[in-house]
Give the backbone structure.
Amino acid sequence: NAGVTQTPKFRVLKTGQSMTLLCAQDMNHEYMYWYRQDPGMGLRLIHYSVGEGTTAKGEVPDGYNVSRLKKQNFLLGLESAAPSQTSVYFCASSYFRDTQYFGPGTRLTVL
Amino acid sequence: DQQVKQNSPSLSVQEGRISILNCDYTNSMFDYFLWYKKYPAEGPTFLISISSIKDKNEDGRFTVFLNKSAKHLSLHIVPSQPGDSAVYFCAANAGGTSYGKLTFGQGTILTVHP
């Protein structure tokens, strides 16, 4: 039982490049979330999903897209990376409105 | 618009003493509150929660107090241990159609000295 895993752990991009962050959970949770953490800002919700095939915008969705084709996976995409997207990204999952379990994070630097 | 605020960026406490971490919120729709603990290079881990129908919840050394009229909650750790040194985030959920979405505070860095 791995819980929530995130791939990759670290990534450096140049401005304008694209990438996809993968989140996988093996707890059969319905809800999944992507957050970003910036110094002095806490964690802010980017997008979330309440079930396979569904996605919705969170607090800071601009510049990101997501997909939930399988219940256990939640992908976060950056189509054209910008330096403002330099951050630590956390994925979380929960059984409906229950406690959220977080992955270890992906540290992204955009030059 | 910061709906959940942790006004103390850091707190330093001696081992064995009490640690008190504070959190204020502005959204009266919040009805469920949580504390998460985060070590460097790891994801946040759930610590303790409280529903708005309660004013106190205990779990071992950790107690969370909720004052709805003041829109304030606090986390008490007694006794504090060096292994408690971490960043603590409070978070809130508005229920209803919020689908479990959490609004986080900025975090407080707790350092427990041996």
